[in-house]
Design a protein that fits this description.
The complex is a heterodimer of chains A (about 600) and B (about 200). By secondary structure, chain A is of the alpha+beta class. Chain A has 21 helices and 15 strands. Classes of the chains: A alpha+beta (about 600), B alpha/beta (about 200). The interface between A and B is large, with 39 and 38 residues. The structure holds guanosine-5'-triphosphate and magnesium ion (MG). Guanosine-5'-triphosphate sits at the interface of chains B and A. Chain A: Plays an important role in membrane trafficking through the secretory apparatus.
């Protein structure tokens, strides 16, 4: 919440593990501790000191985001979700300082029964434990390039630490847990550990949620020491995040929404009817083999701005290239295709919809996150399009990065869509779209070093070859852009799209990138805070950056500068960035082609 | 992602291109739809990848829905058979969608893992399903995969043979890992295909 607090949370460790946190100190804050302590959390506990030191020039809301009618829970007086009870919104941080005993009765050694239970399909378990190291290793490798792309390519999806359960110290020290459980308390999914072994823990979460629910109220958030426990109830499905990452409540809740969306994408919302028939229904088998999908979603929560901006981003391309792609997608989309998307990793090359309803950016994120085969035809559900029904997705990879997705409601359309794809492919090859995509991947994008300082026609395009740029950048580390500009994200409100500059020095390591990501995330939450009202601008200086945010009805700009940057020149630079974005907008955004596709 | 890397489809020894509208199955050039069914993790995608691209990916990912691959083989009698292969997902949630993929299939390849008796039971379920709802003249093959894991074997060869015989199926044990019997599997299937000589 404060600059110092956040800097401490961005130590070398990844969120996955609190690593070398001393065991003694960590016990209090473990989820298990919360579980054990919930009954004894008293309302009169002291206000956490952490929240007092709010950054000077910006008021981050530290309020308890618990809404609903006033309701006291006696005698435990635990998680009241009230906004107006004696637990004022201001003092929403509850301290949990007493020692916790591990319930010896339930403790069992962490065995490795998981892999067997889940079948050989969980072969990804072999990467178990490698992620933390993996992430650290990346630090040295991504220099001056589009670090996000680099490191996401190296990151290996798959469930980690599958052998753990809530009796394991290592499990309790994980910085961010995600759980999904049913209203009867059956575990459905856990980010870490074995769902089946977490039945007791899951039942506890269920008890908490139901207790509040039975009183006609809803629980949103519990704070206990450094931990936030965020709840989201979706019919018979309960989602819980337990985190000590200091991300804002709104961000964590948004992540739970996306987690739910990902489940809906795989199963549709109609799974809830199973619970109507049988409250004890076990949903885990229905999610079999999806560990990689969820782990890559959690990973996206720490690097993909789309996950909190709710906007998508395009691969920068010369205008003519994108038009060529759009034209051919448009041609085929008249034949029963609901949406056609040409994608490069998580970036859009072109997107055409036969219907008026634009594809929701969250649906695009979830779809791009859902891994598919080189050529496949699979049922998927777009939660924001129709959460109750499956569409069929024809997916074809042209190369490792570039793929086509054609969505239809017709389950017999495979061969038709395959024909469409062949047509599309022919055009893409002939008009060099695929090679332009590869070129853009390597050298495209907005680099802060290239920010034009004076209006000039020379900068009307990102695709004039300026061969000196790249070498210059690697020769002069620590420079960044003019006046200490390090990075920016520009989000266009009416396009639902954002563009972010490429990471360049000094934001070159994965840690730096993740820290900046978290800073933006926090800034975003504070700019959109409902209680303090939307802000227009914010200037925030801390030990790591100067952050400048500017929100208008047309756009939002988030920019990071050298911590010593001057406020006046930072504002000037932001204006230049906006101008630059305008100058090259037809290369970085997908602009509505008028009649064909109304955005 | 199945076993397949996301590389463009390319293979050695393939006859003809990837062209679905060349619907011209004649006596010399057969074009057949083949569906692979079986529990998740038994190695369906690995078998296909081995057959189509000659590769084995030990980190193979769970298949989603179904993926489509094709491969053409030439037989001794100078006929060619183009297999259009539906590699289906073995995960439970896709079971209800199986008819989408096996409808009209001329060949059903049902795979189990010789180290996993449950997968053998699941295979029997698929055999029954195809006998009931598949094409009437479907050629069925029962495949015991992961034959390289002899020391972990839990389904005997005899059990496989007996079940296959009872149900008029062709039986073979394979290893996608070592490539053992993979080509043989498809060649034997090709030989058993009904030839459209009369029509
Ligand atoms: N030892 C051994 N392992 C194999 C063999 N074939 C596949 N595997 C392993 O079995 C696991 C699953 O293989 P897949 O081909 O993905 O399984 P699948 O049947 O396609 O599974 P679904 O797509 O979920 O239906 C992978 O980890 C492979 O490495 C084999 O012949 N021998
Ligand atoms: Mg598979």
């Amino acid at each position: 919440m404060t600059s110092n607090a956040s800097s401490s949370s961005f130590s070398d460790e990844d969120e996955e593990s609190a690593g070398q946190k001393p065991k003694t100190g960590s016990i209090d804050y473990s989820p298990d501790a919360i579980e054990n302590q919930l009954p004894s959390i008293a309302l009169n506990t002291s206000i956490d000191e952490e929240k007092v030191s709010v950054a000077d020039d910006h008021h981050e809301p530290v309020t308890e985001i618990a809404r609903g009618s006033s309701r006291e829970i006696e005698p435990e007086r635990l998680i009241s979700s009230t906004g107006e009870s004696n637990l004022s919104t201001e003092t929403g941080v509850w301290r949990n300082s007493s020692k916790v005993e591990v319930d010896g009765a339930t403790s069992s050694p962490c065995s490795s029964g998981y892999a067997g239970e889940m079948g050989t399909s969980s072969g990804t378990a072999s990467t178990s434990g490698a992620d933390d190291i993996q992430e650290l290793r990346n630090n040295s490798s991504s220099v001056g390039n589009d670090g996000e792309v680099l490191h996401s390519a190296q990151w290996v999806p798959g469930k980690r630490h599958v052998d753990e359960d809530d009796t394991c110290m290592s499990w309790r020290e994980r910085k961010k847990h995600f759980f999904v459980l049913s209203h009867s308390g059956k575990p459905i999914f856990s980010r870490y550990g074995n769902e089946h072994k977490l039945a007791g823990f899951s039942a506890t979460l269920q008890a908490i949620i139901s207790f509040v629910k039975d009183g006609g109220d809803r629980i949103h958030l519990i704070r206990a020491g450094k931990h936030q426990v965020v709840f989201l109830v979706k019919g018979p499905i309960y989602l819980v995040c337990i985190s000590c990452t200091e991300e804002p409540y709104e961000s964590l809740r948004g992540q739970l929404e996306l987690l739910y969306g990902q489940m809906v994408l795989i199963l549709t919302e109609s799974v809830s009817r199973y619970f109507e028939k049988n409250p004890k229904f076990d949903m885990t088998p229905l999610l079999g083999g999806t560990d990689a999908v969820f782990s890559s979603l959690f990973h996206a929560f720490s690097w993909n701005p789309a996950s909190f901006l709710h906007a998508y981003t395009c691969l920068p391309l010369p205008c003519a290239t994108r038009q060529a792609a759009a034209a051919i997608l448009q041609d085929v989309s008249d034949s029963g295709v609901i949406y056609s998307m040409l994608m490069c990793k998580y970036k859009v090359v072109s997107l055409v919809g036969a219907q008026k309803a634009p594809l929701h950016p969250d649906d695009m994120l979830l779809l791009a996150n859902f891994v598919m085969t080189s050529e496949s035809f699979s049922p998927i559900c777009l939660p924001r399009y129709n959460a109750m029904a499956f569409l069929h997705a024809y997916v074809h990879y042209f190369d490792d990065d570039t793929y086509l997705v054609l969505l239809t409601s017709n389950s017999d359309a495979f061969f038709h869509l395959k024909d469409c794809r062949i047509q599309i492919e022919n055009v893409l090859v002939k008009s060099n779209v695929l090679s332009d995509i590869q070129r853009s991947l390597l050298e495209g994008g907005m680099r802060v070093e290239n920010l034009p300082l004076y209006p000039s026609t020379r900068y009307g395009s990102l695709f004039h070859n300026e061969p000196s740029d790249r070498s210059q950048e690697s020769l002069q580390p620590g420079i960044g852009g003019p006046d200490g500009l390090w990075h920016f994200i520009y989000r266009s409100m009416n396009l639902d799209q954002y563009v972010s500059s490429k990471f360049s020095s000094p934001i070159t390591t994965h840690q730096h990138q993740k820290r900046l990501y978290r800073a933006y995330q926090k800034l975003y939450a504070s700019m959109h805070d409902k209680e303090t009202g939307p802000h227009k601008t914010q200037f925030k200086r801390d030990g790591n950056y100067v952050l400048l945010c500017w929100v208008t009805t047309d756009f939002e700009l988030y920019a990071a500068f050298d911590p010593l940057a001057d406020k006046g020149s930072a504002i000037r630079i932001c204006n230049r960035v906006c101008q630059w974005v305008k100058d090259v907008e037809n290369e970085i955004f997908l602009l509505g082609g008028g009649s064909t596709f109304a955005w | 992602m199945g076993c397949s890397s996301s590389l463009p489809d390319r293979s050695v020894g393939r006859v003809g291109g990837l062209n679905p509208d060349g619907g011209d199955s004649d006596a010399k050039n057969l074009r057949v739809k083949l569906v692979l069914l079986g529990d998740s993790g038994v190695g369906k995608s690995c078998i296909v990848l081995r057959f189509v691209r000659g590769q084995f990916d030990p980190t193979s990912k769970v298949t989603v829905g179904a993926s489509f691959l094709s491969q053409t083989i030439a037989l001794q009698d100078s006929t060619t058979v183009k297999f259009e292969i539906w590699d289906t997902a073995g995960q439970e949630r896709y079971a209800a969608l199986a008819p989408l993929y096996y409808r009209g299939a001329a060949v059903g390849v049902i795979v189990y893992d010789i180290t996993n008796p449950d997968s053998f039971h699941k295979a029997q379920y698929w055999v029954k399903e195809l006998q009931k709802h598949g094409s009437p003249d479907i050629v069925l093959a029962l495949v015991g995969n992961k034959a390289d894991l002899q020391e972990k074997r839990e389904v005997s060869v005899q059990d496989g043979i007996e079940y296959a015989e009872k149900n008029g199926m062709f039986f073979i044990e394979t290893s996608a890992k070592t490539a053992d019997n993979i080509n043989q599997l498809f060649e034997e299937i090709a030989k058993r295909l009904p030839r459209p000589s009369a029509s």
